[in-house]
Structures are given as C-alpha cells and as structure tokens.
Amino acid sequence: SRAQAMEIDASPTVSYGDIGGIDDQVREVREAVEEPLTNPELFETVGVDPPSGVLLYGPPGTGKTMLAKAVANETDATFIKMAGSELVRKFIGEGSRLVRDLFELAAEREPAVIFIDEIDAVASKRTDSKTSGDAEVQRTMMQLLSEMDGFDDRGEVRIMAATNRFDMLDEAILRPGRFDRLIKVPKPSIEGRERILEIHTRDMNVSDDVDFADLAAELEEYSGADIAALATEAGMFAIRDGRAEVRRRDFDDAYEKIEDAEEQTTIPGH
Ligand code: ATP
C-alpha cells in the first residue's frame, strides 16, 4: 500500500553526535538543509535560493541515511523516507502517484525532510532496451522532476536523496533547481574508524586493554555499518563467555568471524 511504501518518523532520534568520521559532510548538510529551515530570512536578505535538493553519494553503510535523519531531528522536522525501489511499480501511473503522495504528505507535515534512498532505481541513465517497464520508470522520474521544478526552495520542506551508484544517474536530475548540491560520503579514514568505534561502544563495558586507534588500523575498508556490526558481535562474544567486560580478544574474534562469513559469501571473480 502507499502508506507502507513511505516510512514516516515524526521525531527521529539520531543526532549529529552519533555520526563519526564525516564532519565535513555534516557541516555541508547543515548548511544546505538545516540553515534554510531554521534561518530562511538569511537567504531572503542575501537574495539567494538555498539548494533545491541535496544528493548524498558513496558506498553503502557510510552514514547517508543517518545524515538525513539527524538533520530532520535537529530541526524538529518530520522525516519521510521512500526507497527508490519502492517507486518502481508494476502498474502504469502507480510510481508517479506515489511521488505525488510523497510531496503532498511532506507539505502536510512541514517542516519536513523528504529522503529518497536508492534514487538510482528511478533515475538511471536511459537504458537501450525500450521495454514498457523502462517507460514506466521514466514516467516516475519525470513526475519527480516536475515536483522538484514546481517546488518553493524557500519553503519548509527539504529534499534529500542518496545513491551508491552516482555514475549511473541520469544528468537530468542533477540540473539546477533539482539535486543541485552533491555531497560525497566516503568510507571512513583511520581516524574516522576510531571515532565510529568510540560511538558504537559508548554504552558498552569495554576493557582497558582495547586500544581503539590500534583496532581502527586493522579495519581497513570497513564502513560505519561494518564497524557497528563488529562492535555488536564483540559484545556477543563476551556474553557467550559469561563476561561483563568486552576485551580486545572479543573484537579480534568478531573480526575473524565477520571475515570468514565474508569469504564464504563472496563469489569467486566478484
Ligand atoms: P546505504 O547506502 O546502504 O543505505 P547508508 O550510507 O545510508 O547506507 P546508514 O543507513 O546511514 O548507511 O548506516 C547504517 C548503520 O551503520 C547506521 O545505523 C550506523 O549504526 C552505522 N553507521 C554508518 N555510518 C556511520 C558513521 N559515519 N558513524 C556512525 N555510525 C555509522
């Protein structure tokens, strides 16, 4: 149903302090999304329009959804999330109907932040195959573009989207007045990983023998989501061992377990 396709969170709880290793991106999101919501007169006075839409792009699990939730939370806005894959519908007109509903709902609930995850599902470069399914996806994208074009940039609804596949996007959605502020969200650096480890063990009873800087150095290529999973798994090892304290050993066991599982699911050549 339509209601199920959208996730509405009137008071998201994620805050900027929960996000580690991407301070520049937090700053950029605050400038592009928070500032126009909380200080619209500034834009009025200076005589510039704030960015219409903010596109977050980068690998999975790096904090893109968190960024959108946090900015909604910190501005007391309703968070309305829609997955791009949900907009790809079987019946003609269903996808565009959902897009219209999305913008209508946001207007009713303003201030609001619309977040379209996996936007590439509806906004990829035109494929060669002219199947009817593609035509329907095209129509949905057209509806999205038309909603954005008819949008008051100085209003109380901000639009954000995310993708892991920036290179696949149709340039039409990146034109001025559409997603005209691009923010790259990369995997964390070693310092970022250390910070994310600290965040995800805040509520854990961690032994003094755990050196986060040293651990972070071992977690090359780990995303924030990978680090969150590692911390949980380390906690599970301590529990299994009947200990109240999580030790370095638990993190190492967790690391090994995750790496083993990874190996088993990786198809050779991929
Ligand atoms: P996807 O592209 O797969 O949708 P995403 O970039 O939107 O991923 P999130 O949903 O924001 O990723 O992150 C998933 C989880 O990983 C978060 O709930 C959080 O626990 C953890 N996480 C990811 N990035 C960070 C970060 N920078 N700081 C702290 N935790 C993070």
TrEMBL record:
Primary localisation category: cytoplasm
GO terms under biological process: proteasomal protein catabolic process; protein unfolding
Keywords: ATP-binding, Chaperone, Coiled coil, Cytoplasm, Nucleotide-binding, Proteasome
Residues involved in ATP binding: G61, T62, G63, K64, T65, M66, H200
Cellular component GO terms held in the UniProt record: cytoplasm; proteasome-activating nucleotidase complex
GO terms assigned for molecular function: ATP binding; ATP hydrolysis activity
Assembly mode: Homohexamer. The hexameric complex has a two-ring architecture resembling a top hat that caps the 20S proteasome core at one or both ends. Upon ATP-binding, the C-terminus of PAN interacts with the alpha-rings of the proteasome core by binding to the intersubunit pockets.
Protein name: Proteasome-activating nucleotidase
Source organism of this protein record: Halobellus ruber
Gene name of this polypeptide: pan
